[in-house]
Amino acid sequence: MTTTIARPAEAPPAAARPKRQREGAAWVFLSPWVLGAIGLTLLPMAVSLYLSFTDYDLFNPPHWVGLRNYTQMFTEDPRYWRSVVTTLTYVVIAVPLQLALALAVALALKSMRRGRAFYRSAFYAPSLLGASMSIALVWRAIFNDGGTVDNLLGTGGWVNKPGWSLLAVALLTVWQFGAPMVIFLAGLQQIPGELYEAAAVDGASRWRQFVSITVPMLSPVLFFNLVLQTIQAFQVFTPAFAISAGKGGPADSTLVYTMYLYDRGFVASHMGYASAMAWVLLVVIGVVTAVLFRTSRAWVFYASEGER
């Protein structure tokens, strides 16, 4: 007498499962992100948008004032416009210098035969440390009266000079060139070496190879870094706060936009006004990003014309 052992039924393949069941599993895995996006991003943004139309001091219930915060911002607050000019000046100084230094170092690392991994890590380290308050305080000591820069150049401390203090803040950002440098290095390694060999055979100099081959082939990476670093520059806070001791001085020369927003919201307790400033900053960053994308059609080169 033979005994037949029944095999367990095999699970149906994923394609045979009901669509609703597959979607339910997907939402289970996505739920932490969805809850975080709603609770930590969308809901606070909605509350901030509402507060931007109110007079709210953090202690009493918000009082609806309509567009008064916005009209006061644009027509009655000279410090607001000083913060706008300071931020734009900072962006114009810091972003090009940072990208130029990052590209120069990436080109140097690409041509290295030994120690590339070590130097890549060493140059990337400031990007991990530079955003901390401790490094910003050290930077303030370097550029203060009697600091390293004063002892070497004899020009006095930059921190206490209105014409130089913002440059000290920008140089701290430039020093954090590691992240765009790594992206540039990855882009340079994707450029075919045959292009440089053909250019060298035709007698092209190093500068001509850089202008005619490196820059066009690297333009998508350059555009990516430009957009990313511009957005970050508009939101600069920690370096300016630490170097100016939280006052934006001297003579409001380091009063960047986010620092003035912090002052209005948490020092002066005008949270409605600060919320209005935050939304104006969001709109400005969106407009600047859209302009960069629009102008990229004229100078960003893609291998496939269909991707342009």
Automatic annotation (TrEMBL):
It is a multi-pass membrane protein. It is found in: Cell membrane. The chain crosses the membrane at residues 27-53, 88-109, 121-143, 163-188, 209-228, 271-293. GO terms for cellular component: plasma membrane. Keywords: Cell membrane, Membrane, Transmembrane, Transmembrane helix, Transport. Its main location: membrane. GO terms for biological process: transmembrane transport. The keyword Nuclease does not apply. InterPro entries: ABC_transporter_permease, MetI-like, MetI-like_sf. Residues 84-292 form the ABC transmembrane type-1 domain. Belongs to the binding-protein-dependent transport system permease family. This is Sugar ABC transporter permease. It comes from Streptomyces roseirectus.
